[in-house]
Design a protein that fits this description.
The chain contains 4 helices and 6 strands; from the N terminus they run ααββαββββα. It is an alpha+beta fold. The chain has a single domain (6-129), classed as Nuclear Transport Factor 2, Chain: A (Roll). It has a 6-stranded mixed beta sheet. The longest helix has 14 residues, at 6-19.
Length: 132
Amino acid sequence: MKLENEAVQIVSDFLEASMAQDPVRAATYMSADVRITFTGGRSMPSATEITAFNADRYRWVKKQLGQFDWTEHNDHTVVYSNGTLYGEWPDGRSFSGNRYLDRFEVRNGKISRMDVWNDSAEWILTPSIAKP
C-alpha cells in the first residue's frame, strides 16, 4: 500500500520487514548511526538486536497496526505508529490487545531514531491485568 507521506512509507516498510522477521531488510530503512530505545530504556544498536530481544521475550509477536501520525520539522519528520501487539509468550500462552506506541525520526530517507513503548513489561510482571 502506498502511503501519502514518504517518511510514513519508510516506517511502514520497516515495520513490515520487522514483522516478517527480516532484520537484514529492516536495517535498510535505518541510518548507520540509528538510536534505538525500547521500553525500560534498553538501547539497541541495530535491527538485528531488536529481533534477538523479541525472540527472548516472545515465542512470536506481530503488530496490528493502528494509525500513523507525523509532524514535519526543519531537518526530519517524526512519525508515530500505534496499535496493538498479539502473539505468544515463551510458555505458549497467547495474547492480544497489548498496546504499543512507536516514535520514529526520519532524516534523509532513513530512520535515525526509534523509541518503543508497549504493555509487555506490565503484562509479564502482572499477568492478571492482561486481557485474553
